[in-house]
Specification:
alpha+beta, 6-stranded mixed β-barrel, 11-stranded mixed β-sheet, 879 residues, 22 strands, elongated, 53% helix, 27 helices
Length: 879
């Protein structure tokens, strides 16, 4: 009953106040009567009674504080009072809210991306039980299909192991084929992941009855809607995959995109039909690595136990298949990011950006702390009066903190709203047009909970600074004068420190953004081993039109001959795969006298390419020794190859390489006929690695990358290339783009880092402007009378400026120097984010100094004009 009575008090507060007031009055009257009986006069008796019971308002507040429900009403009153105070100071409120929104928004965006990529599991059943099998060497995530079958049959730790491979294929439902992306999967793939169809059925292990036995295809939701207008009658119809008929059996759920977070394929097909689709049978080749393996742990098995089990299985397989000895040392990693191929760099990048976003938030909080400190100094007299008339320090402290929380919540809401919009736009963004890559960063409850926690912390912590001032306020001293006192001098010094910290952080972030811009510029002009400027690439896979590697060769030669006759074309050739396209192949290289061809006895592994005559000239790649490949280097002639400098050096030291031989894993001897310059093959950050280039006539490949160097712009040559391909075979899907555009995949990390750090630098500059402006404006406003007297006494403009803005400019200079120094010390972190990034670059240092000077000029312009426009006569009249 007591609890119900207390809750009822919330709805009858005025009555409760009257009751408390009446009881207090009765006690005062009783005390007066006692004093009169003791011989006091009525005035003395009344004064003594009031002194004994204190301020009536404070007494009522203490009585109400004993009731928790009335305390909640007091909290509501504090919030309303805080809102009124902020309404009276719109400039302060807007500055504080925008400052917090910038810092909170940046952190929510970065955390949202991290949550989507690192923290959020795959959108499948029991994702915590899924592990991916990768090789011992970091970044090596692939296996052979025979090894996968052995692991699946021999292990005792996984309830299921499934395989998948990502590739492109030509899909047609009548007419010209279009290039689409697919997952080739083992039959148990969907069942292991617990995926249910949206329409029809999915693939099952029972569909596999040997090679080329399962001509079925499952459509993604997006592909179904885009290509078939979401027609449910599509199930049971036939689509041609590389001119081979496949039956559409179902449509996957809308939210399912496979077992890689970034990749959104169009279709899923059975892996057992690989030879039929692409003309190459890797299913029986134990040395052909190219598939990825993912497994579901049994309920009672730990990852460590599974690793030990797989190690034992691999040991037995090494004994059974000694040729595969160094490819059977496994690790288990979390799936979703191409094993650890993307996981490591992605985590490093996001962790670095999260640190920088946290620095933005710290800079915002220091800015806010300075604003709160200035506001508390301005309200010192008001607070002292409230203390003197009986208000408790705790009551005032609670109101100050309530005001800080109101601002933090408003800033958090604004920052979260902007962050949610940015994350939604990021989910719809496709950063690389030729790949179906999407990052689903739609914020969930965890992101909003993080935003709420950051908001509270970001508001309360800066709000504790004025709380400290309130607690230490000397009411009598503050009421005597509004002039500066020793305590105020200390507080201003503390504000200087806060602003210096903020400027230091902002200068660090500005330096980081300039480092990223400079690194991006260097990335675009790095030594690739080819010159992409002035080159267009026409890509087609002749498998999509039903050609094999051998039957495609005459057509490729005809296309190159006709392209060479286009006016303005200076060189033309083909290569597969295209360097820096993410599709490179590697093979083991053995010395000429090798007798043991196990991989552990190889000299090294080298990237291998198939090139046509003319490719070197078209790509701008320098031939350093020997000759180029020719059309005479065919299957009936001795095997020959070109190698790069690193290949030659690692195999033959400093001796000549032309005319010497090396061996491949099939024991065939290959003669080196030329040496070309080193290049970049996998990534921009890689160290020089060996590469070999085989003649197209010797190693035909229907996957065609036609490289055309021309004096014409890309648009001017595209029409001619379209006509040539249409004349050869109108059903061939062709994509023609400048070579620079095809570097989007390899340049994406540098571009993403540049955008992220650039945004952080802009936010930091905005915070620096508001911080310096606030300090300069506050300094000028508090010293207007003094400045007026100085002008009246004959002070020059320069002296007035030095007096008014000297301290803010000193803080700006010291903070800027500290930030640039920190940027130099943080060079390792920045180098991990951006290729060839270094803050020691003189252009970066000069740019950072110039940027901070511009920030200071913008921030002090208005206060400086106000100081110079001071009118001493008007100020003295106002006084």
């Amino acid at each position: 009953m007591a609890i119900l009575s207390r809750l009822a008090n919330l709805f009858r507060r005025s009555r409760v106040d009257r009751e408390i007031g009446a009881e207090l009055a009765s006690h005062i009257e009783m005390r007066i009567e006692e004093n009169l009986a003791a011989g006091m006069t009525r005035d003395e008796a009344r004064r003594d009674a009031r002194l004994r019971f204190g301020n009536p308002v404070s007494t009522r507040e203490r009585a109400a504080a004993a009731d928790m429900t009335l305390g909640l009403e007091d909290l509501g009153r504090d919030i309303r009072y805080a809102l009124r105070q902020l309404r009276r100071s719109p400039g302060f409120a807007l500055t504080a809210i925008v400052t917090l929104a910038l810092g909170i928004g940046a952190n929510v965006v970065v955390f949202g991306v991290m949550n989507a990529i690192i923290l959020r599991p795959l959108n499948v059943a029991n994702p915590d039980r899924l592990l991916q099998l990768v090789q011992r060497q970091p970044g090596d995530t692939s296996h052979s299909y025979p090894d996968f079958l052995d692991f699946r049959a021999r292990n005792s730790s996984f309830s299921e192991l499934a395989a998948y491979r990502i590739s492109d294929i030509g899909v047609s439902t009548g007419g010209t084929a279009q290039r689409n992306w697919m997952y080739e999967v083992s039959g148990n793939y969907f069942d292991m992941l617990g995926v249910q169809p949206q329409l029809g059925r999915l693939l099952h292990a029972s569909d596999e009855r040997g090679q080329n036995s399962a001509p079925y295809v499952v459509l993604s939701d997006g592909f179904w809607r885009r290509r078939f207008n979401a027609d449910p009658r599509v199930v049971g119809t036939v689509a041609d995959l590389n001119r081979h008929p496949f039956t559409i059996v179902g449509v996957a759920p809308k939210t399912f995109n496979g077992s890689e977070l970034f990749f959104w394929p169009d279709i899923w097909t059975p892996m057992v039909n690989e030879e039929q689709m692409e003309g190459y049978n890797y299913l029986a080749k134990r040395g052909s690595h190219g598939i990825m393996v993912i497994g579901a742990l049994k309920p009672d098995v730990t990852p460590a136990q599974a690793r030990d089990d797989l190690t034992a299985v691999a040991r037995q397989m090494k004994h059974d298949y000694p040729v595969d000895d160094d490819q059977l040392e496994l690790r288990l990693v979390k799936p979703g990011l191409m094993g650890d191929l993307l996981a490591g760099p992605t985590r490093i990048f996001l962790a670095g950006v999260m640190v920088l976003a946290a620095l933005v938030l710290v800079a915002a909080c220091t800015n806010l702390a300075g604003i709160f400190a200035a506001r508390a100094a301005d309200r010192a007299r008001e607070l002292a009066i409230r203390l003197s008339i009986g208000s408790t320090r705790w009551r005032i402290l609670r109101q100050v903190l309530t005001e800080a929380v109101v601002i933090s919540v408003a800033g958090g809401l604004a920052g979260s709203a902007v962050a949610a919009a940015l994350l939604g736009a990021l989910s719809r963004w496709q950063p690389i047009s030729e790949y179906p890559i999407r990052v689903m960063t739609t914020p969930d409850a965890g992101v909003y909970l993080m935003a709420f926690a950051i908001s509270l912390a970001s508001g309360i912590l800066p709000g504790l600074l004025p709380a400290r001032q309130v607690w230490r306020t000397n009411a009598m001293q503050a009421m005597k004068t509004s002039a500066a006192v020793p305590g105020l001098v200390r507080r201003l010094s503390f504000r200087d420190i806060l602003l210096a910290v903020q400027i230091t952080l902002c200068a660090l972030l500005v330096t980081a953004s300039l480092v990223s811009l400079r690194g991006m510029q260097r990335s675009l002009h790095a030594a690739f081993g080819f010159v992409p400027e002035g080159v267009v690439v026409a890509e087609t896979d002749m498998h999509m039109a039903g050609y094999s590697d051998e039957t495609a060769l005459p057509l490729q030669r005809r296309i190159m001959e006709e392209t060479a006759r286009i006016s303005g074309v200076t060189a033309v050739g083909t290569i597969d795969p295209l360097p820096l396209s993410g599709g490179d192949n590697t093979s083991s290289v053995y010395r000429e006298n090798t007798a043991d061809f196990r991989p552990s006895h190889s000299a090294f592994s080298a990237h291998n390419y198939s090139i046509s005559p003319g490719y070197l000239a078209a790509a701008g790649t320098r031939l350093l020794a020997g000759r180029d490949v020719s059309w005479n280097d065919g299957p009936n002639k001795p095997k020959v190859a070109l190698v790069n400098e690193t290949f030659a050096r690692q195999l033959f030291g400093n001796g000549p390489a032309v005319g010497r031989r090396f061996l491949e894993g099939d024991k065939s001897a290959i003669e080196i006929v030329g040496v070309i310059e080193d290049g970049k093959y996998d990534s921009l950050t890689e160290e020089p690695i060996p590469a070999m280039f085989f003649p197209l006539a010797l190693a035909p490949d229907a996957d065609t990358k036609l490289v055309v160097r021309s004096r014409l712009p890309a648009a001017g040559i595209a029409g001619g290339l379209d006509r040539i391909f249409a004349g050869v075979d109108a059903s061939l899907p062709v994509e023609i783009r400048p070579w620079n555009d095809l570097l989007a995949l390899v340049l994406f990390p540098a571009r993403a880092a540049t955008v992220a750090l650039g945004v952080m630098g802009i936010l930091a500059a905005m915070l620096a402007v508001t911080g310096i402006f606030g300090m300069a404006a506050y300094s000028v406003s508090k010293r207007l009378r003094e400045l007026g007297i100085r002008v009246a006494l004959g002070a020059q403009r320069a002296q007035v400026m030095r007096s008014a803005l000297g301290r803010p400019l000193i803080v700006l200079a010291s903070g800027s120097v500290g930030g640039v120094v920190l940027g130099v010390l943080a060079s390792r972190l920045l180098a991990a984010l951006v290729y060839e990034a270094t803050p020691r670059d003189p252009f970066v240092l000069a740019g950072a100094i110039a940027a901070m000077l511009i920030v200071g000029l913008i921030a002090t312009w208005i206060p400086a004009r106000r100081a110079l426009a001071v009118n001493p006569a008007q100020l003295l009249r106002d006084e």
